[in-house]
Amino acid sequence: MLRSLIAFIWLITILISVTKAQEPLLEISQGVLQGSVFQNRDGGTLYGFRRIPYAQPPIDDLRFKAPVPADGWEGIRDAANDMPSCTQFSVGYPDIISGQEDCLYLNVFIPALPSQNSTKKPVMVYIHGGGFFSGDGTNLLTGPEFLLTKDIILVSIHYRLGVFGFINFEDSDLGVPGNAGLKDQVLALKWVKENIADFGGDPDNVLIFGTSAGSISVHLHMVSPMSTGLFSKVIGQSGVALFPTLISAKNTGVIFAEHLGIQTANLTETLRTLREISAVDLSRTEASIEPENYFFATPNIELDSDQEAFLTRRPIDILLDGDYNHVSLLTGINDLEGLLMEVSALEQTGQSMLIEDFTEFIPEDLEIAAGSEQERALAQKIKNFYYGDNEPTRDNIMPAVDLYTDFLFAFPAYRAVLKHAESVNDVFFYYFTADTDLNIKNMVRPQFREFVGAAHTDELGYMFKTAVTPVIEEGSVEDLAIRSVVNFWTNFATYGNPTPDDSLGYKWEPVKENNFNYLHIGTGFNELNLNPRSENIAFWSQIYDEFFPRK
Predict the structure, then answer these.
(1) Beta bridge partners of 517
(2) How far apart are CA 102 and CA 80, in angstroms?
(3) pTM assigned to the model
(4) Active-site positions?
(5) pLDDT digits (tens, 9 = 90+) for 372-408
(6) In the UniProt record, does the keyword Disulfide bond occur (predicted)?
(7) Residue among 426, 446, 433, 435 nearest 507 (CA)
């Protein structure tokens, strides 16, 4: 019996040793990584190197501050396991706090181990969404098996969220001017620039892409001087830097401290106290603020200080002046973006959304005085356009879905794209309406299947394998849609053009100043067209033509 047990243990040890020996080793400037081997959706071999630190843990005195580059390590670092998510609360479940502060890691996935003779591959860096207070880039949500059917390298990064990444103090002596989460992203991009060649990637052919807050992030990198030279192309999925409620208030650190009952007469002591409170308690407090102030801790316009700033002016002013990073852009929206707000309403109140105050839909950059007759008249105009003679009810949510879609996503994207189209760099636009079993709403929230179309983030189901991705039949509408989206995205990463040749029988034309070309990505079809959501865009264009103070 004892001999059998010893033999069994010996066999298991040998098997583990053999398995470890088969796992890939790769040396970078920080040290040696031992990754893992798995397969893409077509059965091809992939290599993953996970949980690579790009910054020192942002804890203790580094909490709320700009990130500091990570140190190296001795020996072989286990890079087979996924990275932890950053500390965050769950919308609708404020007592559920997940993640950890020590979270500034990234994952790298490659289709082949590099060799001296291999051609450098294009690199796609994914920045996850989640309203700047939630989300992650782990394999549960962003598996590489779809995108890496093509000859590209995929990097996914984590950045600090909520108050940990976006709290700010106006007192420059405190060294917390804000935008730490975006500065995390910049440091991750610098890491890619310096290290991706060791993985077989081309540091001069880096595309950044993201969805929702990740899409807003990549557009912010286009308007931030801090990010200059770190990427050559951008894909933004449902979100631009002109998002109406993006810019947070000043001195959110003081506001947050007051919610915690901390004195704010001496801000040095205030900051010290905030650093002594546990991450869980800070996140719970933020969760209590968010229902009243949905985007409490978000990017901010920094004041002058001795630190390098990420953003010092309004994004719209930077775009109007042309002072941004001029690179090729592919961006777009989904037709049911506004369904996101219905999801949020149900999670927080258990009821469908009900719009009661239409002044909330008057963009701040119109600078219309609160409480004025002009404000009341414009609010009524907005209500009439979407509801006609009807009153909003909880049973009639489609006008609200359309309003939120246009206000938060469609018109901001339209404004941004028109400015970028004035550049020499190509700008491509898509309108996504595909509705199959791969839509996130259908996989995660089947009660929303009755709403035909693509909700916010639904396009992710066609580029990433997730923990809930169903079995995909070869030749099915889902299979063909994945291959179509993956082709467009990886072609753009490789060539700067989603249709670089005539193999599809059509060419996706870029937007021009007088021709808003776009590709309609639908269920089982792709169709070239002009002017998405034309009637709604014309309505908001007329409002901006009349009221926007800077022409």
Answers:
(1) 530
(2) 18
(3) 0.95
(4) 212, 337
(5) 999 999 999 999 999 999 999 999 999 999 999 999 9
(6) yes
(7) 426
